[in-house]
Amino acid sequence: MCLAVSGCGGTDTETPAQEESDLQLNVLGILSLGESLEGVNRLTSATREAAEAIGWDVRLVDAQGDPSKAATGMRSLVQQGVDAIVDAAVEPSIIAQGLTEAREAGIPVVGLSLGSAPEGIVADFAHDDQGNTALIDDELARLVPRGSDVAATRFLGLQATEKRYEQFRLDAEKYGWNVVAVHDLTPPDFGTDAQTWTQSMLTANPGVAGVWTGSDPAAAGVARGIAAVRSDAIVVGFNGDMDALAAIRSGGPFKATVAAGLEEGAWGAVDVLLQVLAGEPVESGQQIGLPGAIVTEENVPAEGEGYFNVSGEDYVKKYTALWKQKYNLG
Amino acid sequence: MVPERFPTLSNLEIVLEAAAVPLVFSLGVTIVMVMEDFDLSIGANASLMGMIAATLMAEQGVSTVFVLLIVAAISLLIGLVNGLVTTRLGVSAFIATLGMSTILAGLTFAINSGANVYEGLSGSFVQLSRMSSLGVNTAILIAGGFCGICWFVMAATRLGHNMYAIGSNPTAARYSGISVPLHRTIGFLIAAFSSGLAGILLTARSESAYIHAGETFLIPSYTAAFIGAATFTSGLFNVPGTLVGVLLVAILFNGMTMVGVEGYVQNIVTGTILIGAIALTVRQGRFQFLGGRR
What we know:
The complex is a heterodimer.
Chain A: E1 27-32, H1 38-53, E2 57-62, H2 67-79, E3 84-88, H3 96-104, E4 109-112, E5 123-127, H4 129-143, E6 149-154, H5 159-174, E7 178-184, H6 190-204, E8 208-212, H7 216-228, E9 234-236, H8 242-249, E10 254-260, H9 262-277, E11 286-290, E12 292-295, H10 315-327
Parallel strand pairs in A: 1-2, 1-3, 3-4, 4-5, 5-11, 6-7, 6-8, 8-9, 9-10
Antiparallel strand pairs in A: 10-12
Chain B: H1 9-34, H2 42-60, H3 64-87, H4 93-112, H5 123-126, H6 138-156, H7 158-168, H8 170-175, H9 180-206, H10 218-231, H11 239-258, H12 263-283
């Protein structure tokens, strides 16, 4: 797949390469909640790809999960005079001062996976946590009969994961599952924590038929725990992370996850920023849901193919062609 | 439901398997604490070793034996730096190992830009945390063997006796001709080696390397060491006491999980046990927690 338009052929031949765009792009700032988090890393990597495809330099600030670093990092990006900022998963209230300073400096900010778009954020591309949980719960219902014992893991530290767990409780009632054990995941290593818990939990509750996790790292750990005690239970995850795809491919107890179009959302975020910078009318405070899709052994990407493409669309080609046509970028 | 399933052989194996990695961590901690030192870099060290091991196998195809040798060498180097900074530069062990922990966390991140390694681990490596031909998980055998070696060294060799002499009274030990810096450095070497070994077992168990994998074990490792010191030999850090401490924590967590105690309650219990064990140890007059050397 060719990410940069230059040298890729196709639309290149339609517009002379030497013709300059009216949009002068220097630097795109990316504020990352933490590059060690796979979901966040996916967002920032795709944002970087999109920005670099149109010749934008990227300056990334990694808050490493630290709110004070995030607040300082946001203000520092504004001070550096970047053209625009993408906030990858940093809660807007933490960077309120930086958002105000960005607005005063005329720097547009787009959010990724924030869950809300308060004043100062043009748009937020986020998971539909409840909708995607309902999708994975439907899949679990296909695998685990009504009236079965199920167990769950949850993480109550984030709005997004709390929403997922609330939806699971509703669906557990809907599908008549008997929730016999719930485990609060201990960060930072959900996998090891979930693995240890699963082994003890299944020894106490050998009749558990399925485990709901709301998190791929936890689901991968639960799957190892299930295998270790040789149980017939199955587990489902959430996010479509690489380790989840690998576990599903292996044909073990990890049966399904719900993938979200994180990369597509990141390219969409760059598109919104370009619209703002080009002076096009853009409604502020938009909430744009990322589509979700169930990944099972039947449709999991082969090893080396990367993440599951939720929409099935070649969004890289779509956006690069669009930006070439509208702004003569790329 | 639970009472009949708790005292079973299969549950015992689950407890022992869960205790294997914490035991290896705690043994290193115990040995440095015998000399009233601290090593706060154990978690970051384990994370780094796991990441190095997984990356070498997944991206370079390095064999398990070479991976183990490389990890052992690097972890010992980290221990040597900790020892030299503490004993030669006079930086407190608390600060030196905290700084080292931050450096190691940065290096772990740098290897794969923060990405996990979840595929490409060799079968023989993963076997380090799988059922052995003896019918017992290999990690249990490794942890048990390492525990036996540490027990022997601390209880039956001049090295171990010298370390206890330093912990008891470093000035008297020095006048007795014991090289305090050398023994403290050896303590840091053992702690770093045990962290590397724990990182390997952890990576084999989870079949993946995660940049924060070792961090979770810092508090439980010290908890186990303090339990051992408080309950076994009236304030002295010791290997059999640590073994009991690790098993106690593992049994407690297993039992709480089996009866469905919420995770946050388990954290509250661990923290309470740690404070209680430290209070008992200090009360017995053998250890001045963070109060410097006597």
